[in-house]
Amino acid sequence: MTETRELPLSMQREGFDPAPALAAIRENEGITKVSTGFGIDAWLITRYADVRAVLSDPATFSNSRVSELPLPGVDKIKRKELAERQAGNLLALDPPAHGRLRRLLTPEFTLRRIRRLEPRIVEIVDEHLDAMERKGPPADLVADFALPIPSLVICELLGVPYSDRAGFQERSNRQLDLSVPLDERLALQEESRDYMATLVERAKADPGEDMLGMLVREHGDDLTSVELIGIAGLLLIAGHETTSNMLGLGTLALLQHPDQLAIVRDQPERVDAAVEELLRWLSIVHSGTGKIATRDVEVAGQLIKEGEFVMCALPTANRDPQLRSEPDELDVTRGEIGHLAFGHGIHHCLGAPLARMELRTALPALLKRFPDLRAVSSTPDFRSFHVIYGLTSMEVAW
Amino acid sequence: MSKLAVNKDFCIGAGLCVLTDADVFDQDDDGIVTLLVDDPGDGPSIKEAVANCPSGALSLVDE
Ligand code: HEM
Ligand code: SF4
Fold first, then answer.
1. CATH says B2-62 is which class?
2. In this structure, which of A16, A142, A143, B14 has its CB flanked by the most CB atoms within 10 Å?
3. Residue A162 sits in which domain range?
């Protein structure tokens, strides 16, 4: 089987919006068979209520059984090896294995713990804005602001040397880029694990005050090295490739809606709501982890057979009129939290409190520092083939 | 009238309940939900917290 370079339907967009074909499926049949781009078909779920129901039912929709799927070019032995490498990856686990690991990490990501990071996040944001100002326009908003801020935050939190960033930023970016050949992506995964393994060894020898050190100190006996590597790897990649794209795309979205930009810049009490609306409207995670049905089950009137692959279209579900009226409008003055941008169910984003804190600190600070901020080009550089939607770069001036 | 029921075993510590109503919900040191009031009732913010809770730890049961 050859790999297709065609963009899977679940990832298709028109600018910020899910492709019209996706919205049409939500309004009509609700569910459709799609090609995943790696030789396997999937049922794509598009409505808000159905997506919530699927994500709430890990017994029927299993994340861990995805490792059984026959990937093209991957033989049985390699597959077993790949499955073993899933250790510590929360997104590849079902209950009760999932809960065991998640509970070790939950205390580190409570609202209270994240609030303690606020002063440091403010400082990091200011440092990057100072650097942009010193250098003067134009700047690449992605390279100079959107990527380095969450990157530095997660490095400090985890205990990853920021000086190694060139290596892991490149790796995490290409690992999630579907236009990169599968072989190369698997090799990159391997390299990332080797890198994490050295950090885990270091933390075991001399556990610091960071999260890796905490995990070693407090749970060193319950967690295997392979699990520690998996956990740290997931946190590093999830901390990098998500908030950064929200910052880039969110800024562009606001620049295109100047009245709403003014609200975020000038009305601090409305920033939390604005962040929620941007999360919903942009829904940067196209579909989250695929699942395998563990029994025959009906969704949106369609029978899904045991063993079939299921995906949830988060952006389409977040634009469901059942969730919000005028769902395709960006309106930062509303901001309820019931959206699915952070997923739902047991895999609901662990880092959500951190991501919210980063966004509500960084976005208004940027807009205040550069009140005349503008995009230099009128054609945004969307990165379409990436598992997480965003901008490759964005030249800005002020 | 419905009553809020909390199943701590399900809670994944997402803290959405705290974002919805910080006068009623809190997280303990392990990140697990705790209630700050004995009888929170079933007002709008309680209903919203139940609807938003991603893990099914919160529910409203009929009395
Ligand atoms: C705006 C930024 C972010 C968005 C939109 C986002 C979105 C998501 C989504 C949709 C999921 C569920 C995926 C699925 O069900 O397959 C998820 C899970 C996860 N996220 Fe985030 N995320 C963000 C930021 C972060 C950050 C900053 C971190 C880490 C520090 C993080 C760590 C995780 C982890 C560990 C999981 C897996 C949880 C589990 O399986 O129990 N995320 N995220
Ligand atoms: S919203 Fe639900 S899962 Fe999250 S902390 Fe509250 S009870 Fe727990």
1. alpha beta
2. B14
3. 9-397
